């Protein structure tokens, strides 16, 4: 669990009253005045659009206007500052009535988005958390290994990197008393010494790596070096660490002339590339699995109607959602249930309450899933998933499985959203 997971689930539980919650995402890689101006314009236009949508006198409008003005000033302040490579993306959530003002910055840029809704829009944040699991980059060397911790999806220091320098005494061969009095050819002796020296350093590095990994057990490993150096290092890895290796990459040429800063940057780039490749693979695997399970009648459902019903029942284990999912839906004012077909219903099929239009059903699905402790996998556009209108879900294994397909009003006290604010 990363720091960001905690922030996500906290935000997913936030609901507004009459004053909507503002969500802002920005790509803050501004290198020149033109790019800065584009960001400021995007924000200004967005504010005009949001205020234009709710007329004068609408409840919550004044608070919304003040939140938006505070946001505008914040962005104006940011765009007047130097571009900072560690701050490539900004996410901001605000609602005056709730006292909500959260500014988060990341080493990864976001797609620009400014909206006001009954709940924070979390899809981009959820995708960042999912796509940027922590990585430890390991570059074995005769002296041990350089270790770099990279967590691109974390809050605060997004690119935290720590180089590991072996202790001085491990650098030198120190003949022990056991060797005393034994005669070897000089060359043979040196080779043996060198091997023993490397073996000892490798084992020390493996121990160090294991200690770091114990503190961050979700971290993947990326090994950097020649195939021989990597193979030798991997032989000494315990099985649990070997299973975390997601890529083996050659040593970047820049490392041989660069300073340690260069090494850090190279490690971060190597980790990002390895993660991206793994993420694409993972997305394909997840889509195949969710579609396959639902076709076999297993614990998975496909399509907006079945997924929404499973979310209302808090039965979703993992939500699989296409990034360009753009359907609308409804939300019940009374019992907080959500639904996929705004046109099909006048009143809530569960409680008969009044329905509000959900302009961003996908965001509602993500917020519900995160709030219920489910995992969220946001995937790139995929034809297989798209044929189910872009959404599917793995279900929890629960006794409630018996309720599957039961008529809606059978819920009683377990009504959707009953435990939500
Ligand atoms: Zn209802």
Task: Summarize the model shown.
This protein has about 425 residues and is α+β, with helices and mostly antiparallel strands. It is about 40% helix and about 20% strand.
Q: What molecules are bound to this protein?
A: zinc ion
Number of strands: 15
What would you call the structural class? alpha+beta
Radius of gyration: 27 Å
**Strand and helix order:** HEHHEEEHEEHHEHHEHHEHEEEEHEHE
What number of structural domains do the residues give? 3
Q: In percent, how much strand structure appears in the residues?
A: 15-25%
Q: What distance lies between the first and last C-alpha atoms, to the nearest angstrom?
A: 24 Å
Characterize the largest beta sheet: strand count, sense, and whether it forms a barrel: 4 strands, antiparallel
CATH homologous superfamily designation of the largest domain: eRF1 domain 2
Looking at the overall shape, the CATH architecture of the largest domain is: 2-Layer Sandwich
Number of helices: 13
Q: Which blocks of ≥5 consecutive residues have pLDDT under 50?
A: 155-181, 400-421
CATH topology of the largest domain: Nucleotidyltransferase, domain 5
Q: What is the quaternary state of this protein?
A: single chain
CATH class of the largest domain: Alpha Beta
The global form is globular
Sheet with most strands: strand arrangement: 3-2-1-4
Average pLDDT, to the nearest integer?
82
Helix coverage percent: 40-55%
């Amino acid at each position: 669990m990363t720091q960001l997971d905690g922030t996500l689930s906290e935000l997913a539980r936030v609901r507004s009253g009459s004053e909507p919650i503002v969500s802002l995402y920005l790509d803050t890689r501004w290198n020149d005045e033109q790019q800065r101006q584009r960001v400021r314009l995007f924000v200004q236009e967005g504010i005009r659009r949001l205020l234009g949508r709710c007329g004068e006198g609408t409840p919550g409008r004044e608070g919304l206007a003040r939140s938006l003005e505070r946001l505008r000033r914040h962005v104006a302040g940011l765009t007047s500052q130097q571009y900072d490579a560690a701050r490539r993306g900004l996410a901001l959530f605000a609602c005056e009535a709730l006292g909500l003002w959260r500014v988060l910055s990341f080493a990864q840029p976001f797609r620009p988005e400014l909206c006001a809704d009954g709940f924070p829009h979390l899809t981009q944040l959820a995708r960042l958390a999912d796509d940027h699991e922590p990585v430890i980059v390991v570059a074995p060397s005769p002296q041990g290994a350089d270790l770099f911790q990279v967590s691109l999806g974390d809050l605060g220091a997004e690119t935290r990197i720590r180089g590991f320098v072996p202790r001085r005494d491990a650098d030198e061969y120190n003949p022990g008393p056991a060797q005393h009095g034994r005669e070897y050819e000089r060359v043979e002796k040196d080779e043996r010494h060198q091997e023993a020296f490397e073996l000892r350093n490798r084992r020390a590095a493996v121990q160090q790596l294991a200690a770091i990994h114990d503190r961050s057990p979700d971290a993947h490993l990326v090994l950097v070096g020649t195939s021989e150096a990597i193979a030798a290092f991997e032989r000494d890895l315990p099985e649990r660490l070997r299973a975390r290796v997601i890529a083996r990459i050659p040593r970047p040429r820049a490392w041989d002339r660069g300073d340690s800063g260069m090494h850090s940057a190279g490690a971060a780039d190597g980790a990002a590339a390895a993660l991206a490749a793994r993420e694409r693979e993972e997305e394909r695997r997840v889509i195949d699995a969710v579609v396959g399970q639902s076709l076999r009648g297993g614990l998975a459902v496909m399509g907006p109607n079945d997924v929404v019903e499973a979310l209302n029942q808090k039965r979703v284990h993992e939500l699989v959602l296409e990034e360009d999912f753009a359907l609308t839906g409804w939300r019940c004012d009374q019992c907080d249930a959500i639904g996929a077909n705004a046109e099909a219903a006048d009143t809530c099929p569960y409680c008969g309450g009044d329905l509000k239009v959900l302009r961003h059903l996908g965001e509602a699905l993500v917020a519900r899933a995160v709030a219920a402790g489910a995992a969220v996998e946001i995937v790139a556009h995929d034809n297989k998933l798209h044929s189910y209108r872009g959404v599917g879900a793995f279900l929890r294994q629960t006794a409630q499985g018996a309720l599957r397909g039961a008529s809606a009003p059978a819920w009683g006290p377990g009504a959707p959203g009953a435990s939500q604010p």
